Amino acid sequence: MMKALHIAIKDLRIRIRDRNTLVLMLLLPIGLTAIIGFAFGGDSGISSIGVALVGPEDGDLLTNAAAGLLSQVELFDAEVTTEDEAREAVASGRKSAAIVLPEGLIDAVLEGAPAEIAVLQDPASGIKARIVETMVERFATSASAGGIVGRAIFDAVEAERPITEAERWQLTGWMFQWMYETWSEPAIAIEEAEAETRDVDVHSYFAPSFAVLFLLFTMLASAKTIHEERESGTYGRLMASPVGRSTFIAGKLMGSYALAAVQVLLLIVLGSLLFGIDWGSHPVAVIVMALVTAAGAASLAIVIASVARTARQTDNVGTAFILMMSLLGGSMWPIEQAPASFQNVARFTFNYWAHSGFKKLVFYDAGLAGISQEILIILAMSIVFFGASVLLLSRRQVLT
Amino acid sequence: MRGEPIIEVDGLVKRYGQLVAVDAVSFVVNEGEIFGLLGPNGAGKTTTISVLSCLTPPTAGTAKIAGLDVTRNSLAARSKIGVVPQEIALYPTLTARDNLVFWGRMYGVPERTLAERIDELLSVVQLAERAGGRIDTFSGGMKRRINIAAGLIHRPDVLFLDEPTVGIDPQTRRSILDLVKDLNASGLTVLYTTHYLEEAEFLCDRVGIMDEGKMLAIGTRAELTTSIGATTSIDVRADGLDDSIVDWLSSLEQVTDVARDGDDLTINTTAEANLLPVIVERLAAGGAKVHSVDVKVPNLESVFLHLTGKSLRDEGDQDAAATKTNALHG
């Protein structure tokens, strides 16, 4: 056991003295998080979303009502324009999205007929455009509800007597007022707005993602040393000394795991210090999640190294595998936007569960119970990976 | 032969599939000896050392270190040996001292004596002042010396040196060979593999000649050369030679052949060391004036050539061997 510990300490000393390791461990994930943060709207999340609003030619009332609704949310910077101007503004990136209200929308709402509100999106403003789309969906839902209520009123009055044109407009105005108040109901709206502001904090979203991605790369570099030791002759020298192969593998695993744990914990601290990320109010849960994630990444990297036959092969195969798994598992993009079928596939990746655990800590302030599923699944993965690597290293004689 | 047998190899066979890397090799190394395994690349020297180092199990036969079977008592046998592989098996970004500390711990050297042992070894390999330097900042020779020190950290009974001078300059080679001599003089048994004849002749008390996995012959240089009937050739150039000197030389028991061509005299003998002063004295007494004497001692190259029908030096080794000869005798 002491010899395994000495091997682990030796590995840690070598890795920590290696500048490339420090770049991979800390600088790259932090740098990428900062770049993505700036690209998506600064270092404090999304502060403003430019929206172009296009109303129907005969629909000033509707257009003004919609503009009024949008102005209720500070996040939106709405501007009423023509459709051509709106398309140009979105295409040039000046606006994140444009909302196009169709002709006859009021009548369609009142009559319960189908109508489509178009949302033009800037592909480069993925999250912002998605927020606009969500708001329009909510508006459409309120409008449908308002239409049902309005039609019920009209039907009730018309059953007694015919409705005059003035009454029709009065009722329509009242209906819009009801929709407006329903949509912008202060108590709920304020609460939801706060929740959404946390939801779209780019740094909070991507810092854990990149931490997991680069944790895997650091672990790959660490696991690769199994082959480097064989290729440089130090493994042979170790095997000619009173050190067993199992001691060597245990030392390698311990060293990798310690490095992984240090990396995740440091990235959590640096994420708080540099980007103001709030990891929630359950520090024990954060530490447990970090340590479990480190175990998963270390054992996954070891299994990759044990499948490969050389250090170079470990690099090539491992890099391809990690990139693919990170794409699938949501370490590079918001997987929440993917179709359900894709997310089901993502559940088979380590990245998905690691990211899911950190997301629950950051966005939902989950405690240990809240992330228990993620912890159990990653621990199960770690056990499977570790068992597979021990089997491969011993049966396939990778080290001889 | 010096002490008791410390390495005993009997009928050792190692096969890799159809390839027979070591074919029924047997030899014994005694305490305090420098025993050389001499042969070309692919002769089976490194495979033999790998089996003795417990790195690979034998296919057949037995190998014992200090009476411990390397297959059945692997861990105990490993603690008796120090291995210096051909490559620099060190951690390049760690310091010399850190490397030695690590290897000391792997051999279970007690912490209380480890620092003292490291200081002693750094002094032996003349690198005490570079203890804190990283290995990757060292010259090739310095790395080689630390590589040897790492094999000595636990005071082994036997040191295995696997071609430790491959690819290094003559000066460094000389310092390493001197170091091995010094270590042996202090009582350390050495098993040394090489494909350089001059190293084997310079260092080894006894040599085992290997080729194509087989042990062809074992003995001291004299035993090996005698076994193939090789003789020392003494070429003398002198004024005033006559047939009486030829007759006299022919009558000597140690002289196997004498030929005279004018002022040149060629004598083949089995006892060069004893005979040369006698010849010179006899020539002087007979009034001859000696201008030059050239002694050609039979070497292991002659033995290898005799045993295998081929030269140990291939084309690529010629230059290296020449520079090595200079290093050994310089």
Please explain how this structure is put together.
- The complex is a heterodimer of chains A (400) and B (330).
- Helices cover 72% and strands 5% of the residues of chain A.
- Chain A is mainly alpha-helical and 400 residues long.
- Chain A has 2 domains: 2-41 and 201-395, no CATH class; 49-198, abc type-2 transporter like fold (3-Layer(aba) Sandwich), CATH 3.40.1710.
- A 4-stranded mixed sheet of chain A has the order 2-1-3-4, sandwiched between helices.
- In chain A, α2 (19-39) runs antiparallel to α9 (202-223) and α9 (202-223) packs parallel to α13.
- Mean pLDDT of chain A is 80; it is low at 186-200.
- By secondary structure, chain B is an alpha/beta fold.
- Chain B has 2 domains: 5-226, Rossmann fold (3-Layer(aba) Sandwich); 231-296, Alpha-Beta Plaits.
- Chain B is built from 12 helices and 14 strands.
- In chain B, the strands form 3 sheets. In chain B, strands 6-7-8-3-9-10 form a 6-stranded mixed sheet, sandwiched between helices. A 4-stranded antiparallel sheet of chain B has the order 2-1-4-5, with helices on one face.
- In chain B, β1 and β2 form a beta hairpin.
- Chain B starts with a strand and ends with a helix.
In short:
With 400 residues, chain A is mainly alpha-helical. Chain A has helices at 2-17, 19-39, 60-71, 83-91, 105-111, 126-160, 165-183, 186-199, 202-223, 225-232, 234-239, 245-275, 283-307, 311-329, 340-346, 350-363, 372-395; strands at residues 49-54, 76-80, 97-100, 118-121.
Architecture blueprint of SSEs:
The complex is a heterodimer of chains A (400) and B (330).
Chain A: H1 2-17, H2 19-39, E1 49-54, H3 60-71, E2 76-80, H4 83-91, E3 97-100, H5 105-111, E4 118-121, H6 126-160, H7 165-183, H8 186-199, H9 202-223, H10 225-232, H11 234-239, H12 245-275, H13 283-307, H14 311-329, H15 340-346, H16 350-363, H17 372-395
Parallel strand pairs in A: 1-2, 1-3
Antiparallel strand pairs in A: 3-4
Chain B: E1 5-16, E2 19-30, E3 34-38, H1 45-52, E4 60-65, E5 68-69, H2 74-80, E6 81-84, H3 96-106, H4 111-124, H5 140-152, E7 158-162, H6 170-185, E8 189-194, H7 197-203, E9 206-211, E10 214-219, H8 221-227, E11 232-239, H9 243-250, E12 255-261, E13 264-269, H10 272-285, E14 289-296, H11 300-308, H12 318-329
Parallel strand pairs in B: 3-8, 3-9, 6-7, 7-8
Antiparallel strand pairs in B: 1-2, 1-4, 4-5, 9-10, 11-13, 11-14, 12-13
